Every structure is written in C-alpha cells, then in structure tokens.
C-alpha cells in the first residue's frame, strides 16, 4: 500500500494562470521542493477522467518555492460547487457526481494507493464532472489539529484523530466517501453548526452521524451509512460502491415518518370517528418522542463549542438521530402489515369455492327443470 504523504504546510497559495503554449487555463499551487517526490504516484493516475491532471512543476525565481501545474476546474471545489448549484441539481445529477467520485477513487485503489485526504476541498468540479485532487490540502500526519477555515474533521476517521498511530488504508478513504456522498445528497456540510474540535470527534467515535435528508433514495442512504460505519470491515470497497451506484433505484425515498404518521392518524380519527385503542396510542406517542430526540440541542460544553442541532443517525442506543432506526422500524411495520393481510387470503379462497359449489348446484337444478319441461312439451305434441 502506497500512502500519499502529506506536506507540513501552514497554508497553500493557489493561482489561476493561462498557459500560452497550450492555450488553456491551469492552476498553480505553491509547494516546497520535498513535496514533489510525493507526487510521483499520483502523477501516474492523471490519465483517468475523474482525477485532476498534473502537468508538471515550475520554480519561482529567487526562492525555494515551486509551483505545481495542474488542471483548472471551472466549478471550483465540491463544497463551493454544491453551495452555488445544489438547488439546480436533480437526483440524476447527484448520482452522476457520486459515480464520478467513486470511479476516480476506484482507480486510485486499483493502483494500491490510499489517498487518505479525501474531502470536499480536495475534490473539484470541471464542466459538471468530478476530479479528485492530490493531497496538497492535508497536513502532516503528526499534526492533527484542523484549521477552522478548513472544516474537514468529519471526513477523517475519528480513531485517527484520537490516535495518530491508528493504521489507515483504503477503508479510510471509503469512510471519507460516505460523508462526501451525504454532502452531495444534502447540499450542506456535515455538522456545519458545530466547532470541529475534539468534542465533535468524541461524538463521531460514539457513532453520531448526520440524519438523512427527506427525499433521498433509501438505497443511497443505506450505502453511505455503510461507508461511514465505525467498523472498517463493514465498509464496502470502491468496486462495490461503484457497482451499487450503477444499479441503484431512485425510489423509494426517505420521508419524514413522524409527520406522515400524525397526518394519517388524524385523518382516520376525523373521517371514521373510531375510538383509538389505548395500547396503540401508547405506541404512537412512544415513537413520536423517539423522533423528537432528533431536534434536541446537544451541549458539547467546553465554553463556546456551540450546539449540534438536528438529526443524527447513531450506531449506538444513545438516542441521537434515530433516522436509521426509524426507517428500519417502518420497513418492519410494513412487513408485519403484509403478514396480517396474508392470513385472510385462504378464507377468501374458501368463500369463493363455496360460492362456486352453490352456483353449480343451482345450474344442475335449472337443467333438470328445463329437461322436464322440454319432455312434457314433447309428449303433448
């Protein structure tokens, strides 16, 4: 496994430039000389349509700095692109972005390379096509503090944030992919209202995740939730993710089950005037209170950390974001309703059989009477 080493840079300067000989725009990234060695592996992947092309490098006169010359992305990074274009994107557009991203990652992994710095600031969009960039935006492995102007903590495995010796590989990229897929579906950064610090990392370690957005295909949600699972063994490979995206159904979609349940119940009460069973009332209120936990403000403490508002799906029983569990419960309830309906079918068959028997008896009697009547007419003639 080849790891793309990260430069220990405090900041990266980016410039847009026009390449006169080639007659197109490029991006110039200011880097240190020692970082050029780290780009060799990534340079070999520039042929792929979903990986940012690296054209070479040039030295700045009278300094030790070099400029890396890369493909220019007219849509900017993915975070910027979604902020400006999300409202115009259909679900087919979002699926294409997810497929492009996974296709590029699959190419990287097929060369036994782990990117390890996948985040929306390092993924670019050019002519509505995803391009995965190199690891320039990341920091040294020994530095795990995240600058506030680059909030990428959710895209990094929480175990690595807590312990820099934690081993990372391709499955670390899949974890990052899960959060990027969520951002593509929602158009917003995960945990945007919270400081990206160790308090948030504790929540991520405990299994707290963002809640799915209403209208997102169920299969898509199941896939990105599997990608960001705490257990690397549960996370699929890039090959698996790409295959599942390719055959994915865009329906059914995730809905606000709490609101739908209340509307249905109120309609039944008003139209049918049926007395509600106390046990059913208890179950409904229990479900409603569980859903209301989604909107509780989580206090991180530590002075000014802010609150974490709304919707997380958690792998634990802590009660945070019951979105995933609600969907599972909803599916289970539908299955139970089917099971309740099916026992009625044999009764229907029996009833229909009895009806047929009676019809046959009536038909036979009618034939007998008709024959008797015809015989009488014959004798008279």
TrEMBL record:
It comes from the Eukaryota. The keyword Cell membrane does not apply. One of its GO terms (molecular function) is ATP binding. Keywords: ATP-binding, Kinase, Membrane, Nucleotide-binding, Transferase, Transmembrane, Transmembrane helix. Residues 1-254 form the Protein kinase domain. Pfam families: PK_Tyr_Ser-Thr. The chain crosses the membrane at residues 352-375. Residues 311-332 are annotated as: Disordered. This is Kinase-like domain-containing protein. It comes from Glomus cerebriforme.
């Amino acid at each position: 496994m080849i790891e793309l080493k990260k430069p220990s840079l405090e900041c990266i300067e980016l410039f847009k430039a026009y390449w006169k000989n080639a007659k197109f725009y490029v991006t110039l990234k200011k880097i240190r000389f020692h970082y050029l060695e780290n780009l060799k592996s990534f340079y070999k992947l520039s042929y792929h349509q979903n990986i940012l092309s690296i054209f070479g490098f040039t030295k700045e006169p009278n300094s030790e700095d070099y400029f890396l010359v890369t493909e220019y992305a007219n849509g900017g990074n993915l975070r910027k692109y979604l902020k400006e274009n999300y409202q115009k994107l259909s679900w087919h557009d979002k699926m294409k972005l997810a497929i492009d991203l996974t296709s590029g990652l699959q190419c990287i992994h097929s060369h036994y390379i782990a990117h390890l710095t996948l985040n929306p600031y390092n993924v670019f969009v050019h002519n509505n096509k995803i391009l995965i960039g190199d690891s320039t935006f990341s920091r040294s492995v020994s530095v795990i503090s995240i600058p506030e102007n680059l909030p990428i903590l959710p895209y990094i495995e929480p175990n690595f944030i807590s312990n820099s010796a934690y081993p990372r590989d391709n499955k670390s990229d899949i974890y990052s992919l899960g959060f990027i897929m969520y951002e593509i579906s929602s158009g917003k950064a995960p945990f945007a209202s919270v400081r990206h610090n160790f308090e948030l990392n504790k929540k991520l370690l405990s299994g707290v995740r963002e809640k799915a957005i209403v209208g997102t295909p169920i299969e898509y949600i199941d896939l990105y939730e599997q990608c960001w699972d705490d257990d690397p063994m549960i996370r699929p490979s890039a090959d698996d993710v790409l295959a599942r995206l390719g055959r994915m159904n865009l329906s059914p979609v995730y809905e606000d089950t709490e609101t739908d349940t209340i509307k249905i119940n109120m309609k039944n009460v008003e139209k049918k005037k049926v007395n509600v069973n106390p046990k059913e009332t208890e179950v409904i209120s229990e479900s409603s209170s569980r859903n209301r936990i989604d909107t509780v403000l989580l206090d991180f403490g530590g002075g000014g950390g802010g609150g974490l508002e709304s919707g997380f799906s958690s792998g634990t029983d802590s009660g945070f974001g019951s979105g995933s569990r609600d969907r599972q419960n909803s599916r289970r309830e539908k299955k139970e309703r089917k099971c309740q309906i099916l026992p009625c079918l044999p009764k229907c068959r029996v009833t229909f059989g009895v009806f047929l028997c009676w019809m046959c008896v009536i038909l036979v009697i009618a034939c007998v009477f008709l024959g008797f009547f015809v015989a009488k007419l014959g004798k008279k003639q």
